[in-house]
Amino acid sequence: MAATKIGLVMGSNSDWDIMQSAAEQLEQFGVEFESRVVSAHRTPDLLFDYASTARERGLACIIAGAGGAAHLPGMLAAKTTLPVLGVPVPSRHLKGMDSLLSIVQMPKGVPVATFAIGEAGAANAALYAISLLALNDAALAAKLDDFRAAQTEMALNMTLPPEL
Ligand code: RP5
C-alpha cells in the first residue's frame, strides 16, 4: 500500500513560525503528518535514525526546513531515497539567502527539491507533498483541483482602487 504520511522536520523550534505554514496546509487537506525538531549539527544521530527509518515507518516524503548553513535537507537526503523537500528558513543576517543556497546547491546524485525562502516555500512544499500523495489518491487529487479553482476564483474577483 502506498505511504500516506508526511514527515515535517526543522532544525530548531525557532523555525516553527515559518514551518507552521506547511503544517497548516497539510491540516487543511486532512493529510497525516508528524512534526519534530531534527537538527543536522545538534542531533546528528537522531537525524541519521530519522532518515534511515523513514520509509519503513511509512513516510511518503520529508519536508525539511532549516536556516543558515542549512544542511538538514541534504543530510536527510543522504540517508533516505524518499523525496526530500527543502524549505529555506529566513536567517537573521542574510535573510535566508544562505539557507537557500545551502539547500539548493546539492551535488549531482543526491537530490533535494528546493522551495522558496519563507512561508510561501513552506506552504508550497506541503502542496507539493500533497501532489505526490495525490498520484495514488483520486480524492486528494480532486481536493487539489478544488484548491486551485478557489484560487482562480479569488484572483478573478480581485478589485483595485479606482483610477485617479
Ligand atoms: C538552524 O539554525 C535552524 O534550522 C535554525 O533556522 C537556525 C537557528 O537555530 P536557533 O539558534 O534559533 O535554534 O539549525
Automatic annotation (TrEMBL):
PANTHER family with a match to the protein in the record: PHOSPHORIBOSYLAMINOIMIDAZOLE CARBOXYLASE, PHOSPHORIBOSYLAMINOIMIDAZOLE CARBOXYLASE CATALYTIC SUBUNIT
User: Which residues does the UniProt record annotate as the domain PurE?
Assistant: 4-155
A GO biological-process term: 'de novo' IMP biosynthetic process
Q: Does the keyword Transmembrane apply?
A: no
Q: Name the chemical reaction catalysed here.
A: 5-carboxyamino-1-(5-phospho-D-ribosyl)imidazole + H(+) = 5-amino-1-(5-phospho-D-ribosyl)imidazole-4-carboxylate
Stretch forming the signal peptide: none
Give the lineage. Bacteria, Pseudomonadati, Pseudomonadota, Gammaproteobacteria, Chromatiales
Name of this protein: N5-carboxyaminoimidazole ribonucleotide mutase
Cited function: Catalyzes the conversion of N5-carboxyaminoimidazole ribonucleotide (N5-CAIR) to 4-carboxy-5-aminoimidazole ribonucleotide (CAIR).
Q: What class of enzyme is it?
A: isomerase
Q: Where does substrate bind?
A: 12, 15, 42
Keyword annotations for this protein, in alphabetical order, are: Isomerase, Purine biosynthesis
The pathway that the record names for this protein is: Purine metabolism; IMP biosynthesis via de novo pathway; 5-amino-1-(5-phospho-D-ribosyl)imidazole-4-carboxylate from 5-amino-1-(5-phospho-D-ribosyl)imidazole (N5-CAIR route): step 2/2
Q: Which InterPro entries does the record associate with it?
A: PurE_ClassI (IPR033747), PurE_dom (IPR000031), PurE_prokaryotes (IPR024694)
**Family indicated by similarity:** Belongs to the AIR carboxylase family. Class I subfamily.
Picking any one GO molecular function of the record gives: 5-(carboxyamino)imidazole ribonucleotide mutase activity
EC no. given is 5.4.99.18
